Amino acid sequence: MIGRWWRPELGLAAVVLVLGVLVVIGTLDVSAAASQLGVGPRFFPMLVGGAMVLIGLFYVADVLRGGRGDPEESEDVDAEAPTDWRGVLLVSGVFLAFAALLDVLGWIIGASLLFFGVSVALGAEHRLRAAVVAVVLGVTTYLLFVNGLGVTLPGGVLAR
Amino acid sequence: MTSLQLLLDGFAAALTPVNLMYALIGVTLGTLVGVLPGIGPAMTVALLLPITFTVPPASAFIMFAGIYYGGMYGGSTTSILLNTPGESASMITALEGNKMARRGRAAQALATAAIGSFVAGTIATALLVVAAPAVVEVAIAFGPEDYFALAVLAFTAVSSVLSRSVVRGLASLGLGLAIGLIGIDQQTGQARLTLGIPQLLDGIDVVIVAVGLFALGEALYVASRLRHAAPEVAPVGRAWMGRADWRRSWRPWLRGTALGFPFGALPGGGAEIPTFLSYAAERRLARGVAREEYGKGAIEGVAGPEAANNASAAGTLVPLLTLGLPTSATAAILLAAFQQYGLQPGPQLFDHNPALVWAMIASLFIGNTMLLVLNLPMAPLWARVLRVPRPYLYAGIVLFAALGVYALNGSVVDLFVLYVLGLLGFAMRRFGLPVAPAVIGMILGPMAEIQLRRALAIGAGDVSVLVRSPIAAVLLVLSALALLAPLVRKLLARRGRAAAPAREE
After folding, report:
1. Deepest in the core among A15, A94, B167, B281, taking most CB within 10 A?
2. Burial of B81 (0-12, 13-18, 19+ CB in 10 A)
3. What residue spans define the domains of chain B?
């Protein structure tokens, strides 16, 4: 049922609108323990939620009437290029898999696979070189942050 | 004690070998990360924030000062050497700077940018030393209604000035405010909008929001539209400039500083407007050779905007340190850094932690000097950094984003939150929503709520308490005007488009 009026930006405008509604609904659960003076924990979220609904409506109307924002310019972005959804999906998949498996694999393996996966998804030509860089980065960040800066990173299977 | 005395104490604290080392690490990392294409000053600070967590506060802020100024320096190098439009504040520098580079004058463009940044940074930091105590004196009398009005002004100004479309700026602000609501209400201990997820009770850490919206959002955006042509990096040797270049640069430096500092200090002022104004002013004042060269690579068009850019960075610190009011995304992240250490910028900070504040201000002077020494001879190295193959660059950004966020709490849930925010950042970039209002809304929102509730409690529920003080009333009127400003801006832009060549649109 995607008609001629559909534009991708409507999705983002709808997110703003729906989030506004959700903020209002979510706030209704909060038991208002307002003191005699002033306002309780519900007042400000209601204000924000209400404002977002209003802004969301204006935003939807603006998009429907043909308004559009300028895609952000950035050094490595070709603003004219058609969206490469494959790249976005691949990077997303690699990242989500990394997040899900980090505690099992540990930082060194997980981060190496993350780097390798994202660089290949973005079109790294020499896979072997990407793999070497990935392992070097995984090991050095682990050593630097765990031994040097005292940050805790998961050891995973290598620690067992 | 006078502020000069306090500043000297600050220098004494900042000039210890250990702190000098932290300052050096800060400026080096700041420049290195800032040089990387696709990474602006805000993302630089957000990505490097986790590194400072294990360092004592005074040293951490000295390092931060270096990262902050270093990120600004790095950004201008990128825009001069790389033939593609970059983040907005250094875009103006690129107009003339890149043309100079392509005519074989990259060394002079980099030199006037570096020296101009040094001159502007030093003068503007000195102005900060003078202005900060004066603002503190005024701010000490501020009541909660005044702080609330200030926050409202920051919200409306940043939403309307940074975006061509007010509704998109406000949408971004709303998203940030909503994220800021998540977690336990500080006054009553009630959980709000946590969706029953226990990890959300403490709210979403600002580092996750900033890294998600900036770093991961950028990586996803790049993945969707990667420029496949190899980047064109202008060749460059050691940065230097001759006597004629000095003669042509010093006035633009000073004019740029004069424009940059006040705009940086205003809510919503930021770096974009003063750099553009400086560019336009130098164009109008250009005579002789400069007039012929303008549009083809005139040194004045680099010197002025670059000075304005750095002066505005120092100006931003005035409201941040004295009022706790962030006026740019970078400042919002700096504010978060203060909060990580349990410090709240504002008039009290100067009272309770003078040593820390003044050591930080002193290290701004020191970092600025280090950057000058570092950047003139190291230009060829930075040029090499720009040639990093893009797949590796963005894979590295994603890796460090994950590292920084995981290091916060050692929680995998944070990584999933990071991904959701990355998607949001991607959508915002794609549809032209500015990111800064979201970051500022998220950080300043909770503070605005506390002040609002405090003010209403004092007024016993009477809403008119919000405009009782003349300061608050004026600030709220200004906020309303800020929402109308885009109309004025449209007129200015129409005029500006006639003045600025190509690039626009």
Report:
1. B167
2. buried
3. 3-499
